[in-house]
Amino acid sequence: MPQPIRLIAGLGNPGPDYEKTRHNAGFWLLDSLADDARASFALEKGFAGQVAKVRHDGEWVWLVKPMTYMNRSGQSVGALARFYKIPPEQVLVVHDELDLLPGHVKLKQGGGHAGHNGLKDIQAALGSPAFWRLRVGIGHPRTLGLAQPVVDFVLHPPRREEGEAIDGALTRARAVIPALMDGKFELATRQLHGDNP
């Protein structure tokens, strides 16, 4: 029986300069989840991140936005998981995904990190790739007909029509989070993937 999600990490870079950039898609979803639960984030230095706690079905679920910059995300996620004894299988990481077009969102467990520095660091910190990933499509500069390098692309805000597509994907992702907190991964996957444009 799959274990319900108890820790949700949204990836991004801290600070107002990065707030609206594509790399911060994970932060965007976590802000919405905290709003849904009327919870607020507080900086917890021991966990190197902004942390919020929400109740689901009588259980606590932790939301974290690492404040370490993307490539050190594992510092925050690893510290929280160890402190609350949450195994990798009960961790969900929400991140931007170059290999999916804006508007697409996919759920998967395990696998590689495809060069995503945040995922790479979390995998190292948890000592396992078995955590869940919610991959929010931001597109790739090549598939979107842009000449800019990837590193530059992820640190810029999406264009208007891409932003609208990403918002739609985040709304659908938000709708399946309760199922993930119940451990109903098949149901969440069906709902999410059935809705991809």
Automatic annotation (TrEMBL):
Subcellular location field: Cytoplasm
Keywords of the record: Cytoplasm, Hydrolase, RNA-binding, tRNA-binding
One GO location term (cellular component): cytoplasm
Residues of the site described as Discriminates between blocked and unblocked aminoacyl-tRNA: 13
Broad class of enzyme this protein falls into: hydrolase
Catalytic residue list: 23
Record's catalysed reaction(s): an N-acyl-L-alpha-aminoacyl-tRNA + H2O = an N-acyl-L-amino acid + a tRNA + H(+)
InterPro entries on file: Pept_tRNA_hydro, Pept_tRNA_hydro_CS, Pept_tRNA_hydro_sf
E.C. numbers: 3.1.1.29
Pfam families: Pept_tRNA_hydro
Gene Ontology terms describing biological process: protein quality control for misfolded or incompletely synthesized proteins; rescue of stalled ribosome
PROSITE patterns (alphabetical): PEPT_TRNA_HYDROL_1, PEPT_TRNA_HYDROL_2
Quaternary structure and partners: Monomer.
Family: Belongs to the PTH family.
UniProt xrefs under PANTHER family: PEPTIDYL-TRNA HYDROLASE (PTHR17224)
NCBIfam families: pth
Purpose: Hydrolyzes ribosome-free peptidyl-tRNAs (with 1 or more amino acids incorporated), which drop off the ribosome during protein synthesis, or as a result of ribosome stalling. Catalyzes the release of premature peptidyl moieties from peptidyl-tRNA molecules trapped in stalled 50S ribosomal subunits, and thus maintains levels of free tRNAs and 50S ribosomes.
Name of the featured protein: Peptidyl-tRNA hydrolase
Organism: Verticiella sediminum
Gene: pth
